Amino acid sequence: MSTVTTADTAGPPAAPKSWAALGPLTARSLKSCLRTPSLLLSPLLTSAFFMIIYEGQLSSVTAAATPGGRYIDVVLPLCLLTTAFTGGATAGQLFVNDIGSGYHARLWLTPVGRWALLAAPVMAGVVVLAAQAAALTGLGLLLGLDPVTGAPAILAIISATVLLGTGFLLLAGAVGLHTGNSSAVGSVTLVFFPLSFFTATFVPRDQLGGWMAHAADVNPLTPPLEAMRGLLTAPWNEQNLLPGALVALAILVTGAAAAHLALTRRTRTGV
């Protein structure tokens, strides 16, 4: 009888405790990112390096084939796409670090809702990804980026990167929560990185031919990449952004489902 009474009194406060704990848990995850330069700087510096190289070496030979004659309009979305899935490993690595240190096991003994323990690293990853996308877009402006629709396009492409990256954050978080293994988390990036080279990587989609054009047609990364380029190069009412948005939402839903399954498994097994 006393057991039932304890459960009844302990159950209801769980939700308020979870919401109250979400902010501190997210702040702690952000501090962990700041203390781990590889999580914060590696995706940013890698994408910035390739953006400068691609724009510097290819702009003179491809500018005539690009909308508005600015190659940065082509290469910036590619670098943002790459940042979305490389930076998406942030949540998974945070889980791996906490599981390895035993901190995650201690959190598991608290009354905080399990969803909050998952949401905090993902939210921290979203903040980091937004900062990385803003920094890369700022670099793009220095390299000559001049969107047709102006400032709204800049905000839209950063938001698109965050939306796409949140799906990857959830996928990597699910892998990290399920395995506790850093190499397994890195495999999420390894799956998508080669795909980025089988789409319209260096030129607009209509410039591709042969087997590469067919590969780009079936590549799931092509619609979001083309949508992000469209945000910069033409009025939005002339663009078909729906395919890219649907792919981003599909990745988000898949990541959420995978994270839910990983969380359910860990809750049931306690490991």
UniProtKB/TrEMBL annotation:
It is a multi-pass membrane protein. It comes from the Bacteria. Residues 34-266 form the ABC transmembrane type-2 domain. It is found in: Cell membrane; Membrane. One of its GO terms (biological process) is response to antibiotic. Pfam families: ABC2_membrane (PF01061). Keywords: Antibiotic resistance, Cell membrane, Membrane, Transmembrane, Transmembrane helix, Transport. GO terms for molecular function: ABC-type transporter activity. Coiled coil: none annotated. GO terms for cellular component: ATP-binding cassette (ABC) transporter complex. Its main location: membrane. The chain crosses the membrane at residues 38-54, 74-96, 117-145, 151-172, 184-203, 241-263. InterPro entries: ABC2_TM, ABC2_TM_bact-type, ABC_2_transport, Nod_factor_ABC_transporter. Belongs to the ABC-2 integral membrane protein family. This is Transport permease protein. The lineage of its organism: Bacteria, Bacillati, Actinomycetota, Actinomycetes, Kitasatosporales.
